[in-house]
Amino acid sequence: MTFWLLLAVNSVTFGGLLFLLSAGFSLIFGLMRIPNLTHGSLFMLGAYFGATLAIGYRGVSANFWIAALLGALLVAAFGGLIERLLLRRLPGEQLAQVLVTLGISFMIADLCLMGWGGDPISVATPRAFEGFSRLGALVFPTYRLVIILIAAAVAVALWLMLDRTRLGAMIRAGVDDPEMARVVGIRVSRLFTIVFALGAGLAGFAGMIGTPILSVYPGLDQDMLPLALVVVILGGTGSLLGSFIGSMIVGIIYNFGQALMPELAYFVLFLPMLLVLILRPQGLFGRHAP
Amino acid sequence: MTSRCVALGLALAALAAIPYEVPGSYYINVASQILLYAVFALGLSVLVGYAGLVSLGHAGLFGVSCYAIAYLLAAGYGHAFAITAGLTITLVATGLFAALSLRSTGIGFIMITLALGEILWGLAYRWISITNGDNGISVASRPSPFGLTLVSATGFYYATLLIFLLAVAAVLTFVRSPLGAALAGTRDQARRMNALGYHVWMIRFWACLFSGLLTAIAGMLFVYYNQFISPQTLALTSSAEVLLMVISGGASTLLGPIVGAALVVIIKNVASGYIERWNFMLGAVFVAIVILMPEGLVPGTVRLWRMGSRALWKRQKSPVAAASAGGKR
Fold first, then answer.
1. What pTM was computed for the model?
2. B123 → closest Cβ in A107, A222, A267
3. I want to staple A268 with a disulfide (CB 3.0 to 4.6 A). Which of A22, A141, A257, B107 is the partner?
4. Burial class, A215, CB count within 10 angstroms (exposed 0-12 / middle 13-18 / buried 19+)
């Protein structure tokens, strides 16, 4: 019983991290039609930045959450720079965008290997959330609950932002019809930078709050990127709900797969993808095929 | 036409003479590598260049072929059976790949192939009872067809050269066939082809299978060349490397992927002698090619050279014209 419960909690936790990662990916893809293959690298960069700040230098170190926020801000700024300096020069050329983002991701991976070495770096769980907490007769690892809460809060905040604010309305208009949005006076170009930086920041933040569980190591980017891709293929592009459901599905299948048949965990992810591609190629909540 | 025949004859003679021209087996091995990657790049170029479908999962298929052959050899089967079964398994995997990826085109195709390739990588890495995980599988011996030995660098080079020439001939035949013309049609005007009564999906599917066959053959050469296979071969960087070969030379030409393969293999071998950071260089070359010369290295260099000299020449006359010529890509 405990085994299954823990597995379920782990799945939802991982799903939460995946949601933070793939919401940005999906928004960037939905709004700008840019397949941002640096997204896994941004996740890893956030983890490395955050871990460095949290571990600190000669005893001077940042609080875990401050480190996570600072790391996310750095990654957001970095994402904004990539968008402004490189992707901006390739409007509508998707193959070129794929190649450039792929090239950047290789450069980031190699620079990280140079800077932080090949050993995994892990960060201690924040003191306040160590150990387990009880809910009635059931016992949960506290930090994982915190991650689930954060992911849920971000999901609600993103939904409110997209659904209730002026900025959100502009983004939705941009996703649906960029030309028309431009015509009615929305500065789609500035929206692009905002959304790209927001997506990058979310990925970086997810990377850092994931480190106590996943730790950060070379190759983390290549582990996460395909998961984000599968989430988007499952959920459909540009849809927040799609990212959420897709993340949960992938989180559950991945974790249960890893516990029950560790050798084939990666392969089992194939199955829902297969089903969705056959039955509903635009994704569960997508409006048009990617 | 005659000058073409002469050039072809000269190229063939040069290729055949390589083991006698270069000093030492290291260089012969580099030449073998170039040829086997050229087969791989030709396979991908069928999709990228003629079908307009960019696959980022081809290293996965390449790896399926390598692992199938290595596994069967390690299990004690003979070379002929291992090769036949390996190629068949890879073709079946390609068919499955294609059936899934062709649900979409353009960017969707790239993302699906990327995800599928990564899943195969994960399988190679984690399915330890079959693939031996990170430790990989060793291949004890190379085959000796018709009593010829392939153990020496020279012997292996000639076998690779023969297969390479067959692959070039196959691609040439494919491209010039009605199917090849129809494929280029689906790339340029999919709807119109559909309206004309062509089965666009089926044409693309056949192209995928042909590309998969060449990839499988390249994988076979690779696993016999290295006599070892590990998950690294299936990584995204490998898919990206072969894509770089295809686009750096120029995708929809026959010579482009071959030149690209030579370029990347030589850079990789030379560069790895001086720097460890091959992946960084790969990324930087990607970004540079896409930003500076998206049409491929050779035409790109020519264009940049012309643009530069024209800008320099015009600046003395009218600064406005020079600025607008320089600003527009």
1. 0.83
2. A267
3. A257
4. middle
